[in-house]
Design a protein that fits this description.
single chain; alpha/beta; 2 helices; 3 strands
């Protein structure tokens, strides 16, 4: 379990965050940490942002940006 043997992380990167479900779980588990979610699909970023704004528990994490796939 997190925090039993090591200090809790201050920042967590959720790669492939999708709709942010995992990031929400991490925010509940690690309320002091900054949770950042990234995803290659802009629609997933939009859904995660909408979910963050729709919940009153959205202060624990943010979706900062998507990663651009470049050729």
């Amino acid at each position: 379990a997190i925090g039993e043997h090591a200090p809790a992380p201050r920042r967590v990167l959720d790669v492939g965050t999708g709709t942010g479900q995992g990031a929400f779980a991490l925010a509940r588990l690690l309320p002091e940490a900054e949770i950042v979610g990234v995803d290659l699909v802009e629609e997933m970023i939009e859904r995660a942002r909408a979910k963050a704004h729709a919940t009153s528990n959205s202060t624990g994490w943010t979706v900062r940006c998507s990663i651009s796939a470049r050729n």
